[in-house]
Amino acid sequence: MPKNPPKIELSWRNENYGSVYAVAAFRNYAGTFDWSERTHQRFRGCLKRAGFEFHHGRSAYIASKGEGIERKRALCDELARAGFQIVRGDAREPQP
Known about the structure:
Layout (H helix, E strand, L loop, with lengths): L6 E6 L11 E5 L8 H14 L2 E3 L4 E4 L4 H14 L3 E4 L8
Parallel strand pairs: 1-5
Antiparallel strand pairs: 1-2, 2-4, 3-4
Helix pairs in contact: 1-2
């Protein structure tokens, strides 16, 4: 029986206020509590390669360099390559 891929929900948001400048930002509301440590490591690697960092004050993952849509697509590409299933917020899909 094939293993189920880890699921992730990307809730893209505008974090450009106050002292924070973000070209792209998201919060992850999917159930990551049941991910293994290895899955969390893969997720952190995807974030780093796509240019995102966790901002503790905003409780959001933020990219502060580049273009917004490029950072979003880069993260979605990284997650897909790492075997994650994006259940919401896939920036690679055409918007209606």
